[in-house]
Amino acid sequence: MVATRGLFFVSLFALALGKPMGRNMKVHESREGIPDGFSLRGAALPDQTLKLRLALVQSNFPELERKLMDVSTPSSANYGKHLSKAEVQQLVAPTQESVNIVNAWLKENDIDAKTISATGDWLSFEVPVSKANDLFDADFSVYTHDASGMEAVRTLSYSIPAELQGHLDLVHPTVTFPNPKSHLPVFSAPIKPEAQNLTSRAVPSSCKSTITPACLQAIYNIPTTKATESSNKLAVTGFIEQFANKADLKTFLTKYRTDISSSTTFTLQTLDGGSNSQTGSQAGVEANLDIQYTVGVATGVPTVFISVGEDFQDGDLEGFLDVVNFLLDEDTPPYVMTTSYGQNENTISRNLANNLCNAYAQLGARGVSILFASGDGGVSGSQSASCSKFVPTFPSGCPFMTSVGATQGVSPETAASFSSGGFSNYFGIPDYQADAVAGYLSALGSTNSGKYNASGRGFPDIATQGVNFEVVVDGQLGGVEGTSCSSPTLASIISLLNDRLIAAGKSPLGFLNPFIYSTGASALNDITSGSNPGCNTNGFPAKAGWDPVTGLGTPDFNKLLTAVGL
Asked: Which cofactor does it need (predicted)?
């Protein structure tokens, strides 16, 4: 069988080189119509240059997924035995057959593409609109985002030669539209916080109205002792020119972490032309929030701010794909990555969503915990919007990352009404949460029937506080709310757990979900009140066990220590 397959491949490749591929085109991706909020302006200029990316089919992703679950499931004998960079690359690199066939097609069409990923699964090239239309049987046109005026050249469908099926995964950007509505936290007017007892483990009374590091430490039993392991890094990603200001961090630490040096800071990595201006007026609410509540809560954990510039190469993903490929190329990526940005799942193509999700699986297999804020629109998406059916967010629907929702209040905590949650339309229910989702749907009954995909991956997975966080921006104290507060909080807790694990000679937690849906579930505080309204409904109600508002609940550091065997 092997010899026969090899002969067939040689013959096919020779055929591909010997004559042009026929015009037997097959529709590869399409969308039903123009996305809400966009209008067609007209045909794109034929000589306008398009920057396109090709993703080749990865060789053995099913085996990577199997190994990811094997090293991430506490009951497995291989739990914690994460894969090396080389082992991951070997599983996802495209086959030589795919490389040869795609390159033959490119050569035939006089296209000079460059490889832009370590495994060779991503290629990029530039062509005029007229040639792109011909290559892909497409109709690239100019679309305008009505609210912002942003213009984008896209097509509603494209095709590829039949010979490339099974070898070429997607062409981008094509049917994926931009996401100009940024997912950022709400910044309220300046506030004057009450005095707090920063050393007592009792929850300060002021935490009922404002959240500080001391509140989080008290609510979730987070230690104040300094982490010891220098290899244990925490990455905070920054996009859309959101800059983390060191002077504001110093002010924040001086006010809220009097027990540590106010000079404690973060390191910087940049890509896609990123920078981190220290001009006070350019301090970003999101970037400052994320940095102040990682440096300020994950005591002593080395924190890196990854600033992604506006020259991102991944089209409409605002640098999401670029940053994950950047980390995959590192020999020792940070053990935790938190991102407080996102978009609605329906804004991107299924193929692109799947490709990015698979990249998170690669990082997870190497021992990285990937956390994303679930969004702030309840069941209406990443931000509140009008809708008839519930809108899942991305990448929260991806089964290979951990989605973080929001709570509010103290004793008891309740779901924050804006906490995005629901069920993916792109990804099915993963095994690790099948029982939890089934239990919730049974209890939910017919409520919201027809408005969501009952067979989809449920999110969020977990939650933390997300309302009335005190931050410093350009020297000014203000209140912030959103799941943007929740993800860096959880990232800090996981990083402190990793510090204890590494100090004990154990592996970091890596991909969290198989753990938190099994042995880790008992270490979480179940949230059973509140809901996430949207789409002219009350959304989903929080219930006992997992729910699509707060996930499995909120963390207790001491109980998590026990759950991880410390």
From this structure: Ca(2+)
The verdict on whether residue 311 carries a ligand-binding annotation is no
Helices (H), 47-116: 61-72, 85-92, 96-108
- The answer to the question of whether 474 is labelled as a binding residue is no
Q: Edge-to-edge, what's the strand order for the sheet holding 476-481?
A: 186-190, 476-481, 469-473
* Residues with catalytic roles: 286, 290, 484
E runs forming strands in 286-374 = 303-308, 336-339, 343-344, 369-373
CATH among 2.60.40.10, 3.30.413.10, 3.40.50.300, 3.40.50.200 for 207-563? 3.40.50.200
What are residue 68's DSSP bridge partners? none
Count of beta carbons in the 10 Å neighbourhood of residue 40: 12
Q: Is 502 annotated as a binding residue?
A: no
Q: Residue 446: which region, alpha, beta or left (left: phi > 0; alpha: psi -120 to 50)?
A: alpha
pLDDT digits (tens, 9 = 90+) for 300-356: 999 999 999 877 655 556 688 889 989 999 999 999 999 998 888 988 899 999 999
What pTM did the predictor assign?
0.91
Question: For the chain, where do the domains classified as CATH 3.40.50.200 start and end?
Answer: 207-563
